[in-house]
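question for whoever is on the cluster today: can someone run the full assembly for these? two chains, 676 residues total. i dont have access anymore since they changed the login thing
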Amino acid sequence: MAALRLLLAGFGNVGRRFVELLAERDAHPGLAGFDVAIVALTTGGHGAWADPAGLAPARILDQYRVHGRFPQALDTLEAARSLDYDVLVELSPLSIAGRGEPAISFVRAALGRGRHVVSANKGPVAWAERELSALARSNGARFLFEATVMDGAPVFNLRRHCLRGNTITGIEGILNSTTNVVLGAMEQGLGLAAAVARAQALGIAEADPRADLEGWDAAVKLTALANVLMDAGLTPEAVARQGIEALTPEDLAAARAQGRRIKLVCEAVRDGGAVRASVRVRHLELDHPFARVEGAGSVLRIHTDILGRLILAEDGPDLSTTAYGVIADLFALLPDAM
Amino acid sequence: MAALRLLLAGFGNVGRRFVELLAERDAHPGLAGFDVAIVALTTGGHGAWADPAGLAPARILDQYRVHGRFPQALDTLEAARSLDYDVLVELSPLSIAGRGEPAISFVRAALGRGRHVVSANKGPVAWAERELSALARSNGARFLFEATVMDGAPVFNLRRHCLRGNTITGIEGILNSTTNVVLGAMEQGLGLAAAVARAQALGIAEADPRADLEGWDAAVKLTALANVLMDAGLTPEAVARQGIEALTPEDLAAARAQGRRIKLVCEAVRDGGAVRASVRVRHLELDHPFARVEGAGSVLRIHTDILGRLILAEDGPDLSTTAYGVIADLFALLPDAM
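^ ran it for u. tokens below:
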């Protein structure tokens, strides 16, 4: 049997790409020691599938391609509570209205049984990271979530392994792809609705784009980062939040005429004992390091007391980038994979 | 006694800043568990100092400020071979003419005795990394060198901890500060000599700037990166190398008139079984991610097969940034510092 038996909760874009990468494992030499098996898969509305002997990735993909759903009925919470697995891979959609639920309950159920959790869903991190990390520790399990912010770019692993000794005094970044793509289209003269439609056609904006346009998605990501990198103890509601709904193509043209670009910028700074966080529309000079972030790219600048300022950026991320975040976390759970 | 007893070889800018950070330890909460002591210090021409009970950082700084040298005579190689210490911190100057010597011999002496080595000198990495890493392994020691490329920005630690499962297919970057500062001054109309003089006045260019201007420093850094990140097996002589000596302010103005900036760009790409590496003068469009790297900043773009393209940049590094590279490596040698 594989070293890690996975319960996959969710089979959206990231889940599919993750399973595709497993199916293509031989094309990636670095995945040689990546010894995982999917023993169960649950979805919100497309059925479920469990096999303690393991479900071959190609079989999962075939099933979904041919039938558009899976043959069994199994609730995610029930699966997390009752099945035998090593890691819950939480890939269900973010719910802002639910303040991270029902995913928080799935994660709690797994960690409470001493099973590890790898989450690509940022809800549990933004609303319940302290509780869930404490629960993981007390049960000898780990709660990892590299895929939640900046796709799979290593932000949490960077903090964990590469910045030891530093105190992080501030973070800033462009963390929401949809607004960045929409703002780019509006710079070309499109109105907000047409720009959103283009981002939807590209598969970047969701059918209901409000969480992105209103800055909620950015606020959730910023909360996750501020809590883990700066021990901020925030929830997304505490972020001073501005969206891009009120912007017009004329605003973007006027900024351009002044040598500036409009970007939705996240920021968290230490202010005495507390951390102040904001998501704001900013007019950036063209030589600002964030001004040239195009399309679905994202960027993070980390301010530290010793190392100074470090910038991490993704250049043209795709679904594999996000799926890699899940892979990175699973590597951390494998005994001596490298 | 401290958890790690250090032999410091070299007391130039980086060595001094490292000792200053130790003296200011209380101002940096993240250094609370950084339990190191300096038991010996050697220099090329400014004497040496050894005390098995440990030399207080403030005492070292006072001695150097008042006397400009240290009170004892002790050769670095002799110290590496005979003193009792846990880690050789190799901070002596790079010698291109010596192809990494005499630092390689210092490192070999320490590793051969099973002592760890933390090197800020890139010579031993560029010319002898395979031999020295093998020697470290066979003696139960570690050979670490985070400070050698991009100051203390985490490039080698990123590779080690944050990219597992990926194959690195190429790297590109601006890795030499001096040429970047000189090119910036030439864009403002200065000739090469005046631009170099300005960089020297800023403390960035060395008294003899040829190794930077001719692209050797960049080639040495690229070799270190390519060997460790891509297992390239190169030496700096194998890098197709171009410098900036022949450029004029008119060249930079002409590029600017075409909407481009001239930068000295390092690149290594996999080509069949081998890795091809080059340091070249390139005319970059203004929206190229390297075009906006200013002053002493540096940038690295890493191409991978799964994660995609990741960019790491330093924004306004100073001596603390480089000294941090040494601190990061020492943290990796401390038992459970965090």
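summary bc i know u wont read the tokens: The domain at 4-152+319-333 of chain A is CATH 3.40.50.720 (Rossmann fold). The longest helix of chain A spans residues 123-138.
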